[in-house]
Task: structure prediction
Amino acid sequence: MSETAGISTGIAQRYATAVFDIAKEGKAIKALESDVAALEAAMNESDDLRTLLTSPLYSREEQSAAISAIAAKMELSDTTSNVLALLASKRRLFVMPQLLAVLQDMLAEERGEVTAEVTTAKKLTKAQADKLAKTLKAQVGKSITIKETVDESIIGGLIVKVGSKMIDTSIASKLNALQNTMKEVG
Result:
């Protein structure tokens, strides 16, 4: 992990913990869940929003005004709106992706769920996803939410990450292992 990514994650962790604690005390976990989902969707869909979060060309005042308008338009909760305003005033909007990821993990933990990041060569069918979730639930002992990514470069198989554990059954990794073995022999 690069030093900058580590710093961003550390900042995001502190803000996420504060936001989560405030939401929990105010019995507003459901509102926080919907805010996080809405913000993730907006970030995935809008290049302009991603630029606003990361570009140093916008002044602190421009970022604050824009993020406040976005929060109002999206009808985000007061807690989330206040945190976004605070991030903008401190010039820390760049940590938003990490903040949302940490909040997703905290919310899943609150629900007794674990998120499994699954990378496949082609999209899983509903039946395949359900079977994988059932198998992972038996291994982990918690309810599993699958976050799927399609990456055709793995050729076939799966890469599954649950917490700190990773299972890589992709054909690409098997070919790399075979290539390394052949280099050692020859």
Helices lie at 3-25, 29-45, 47-54, 60-73, 78-89, 96-111, 126-140, 171-185.
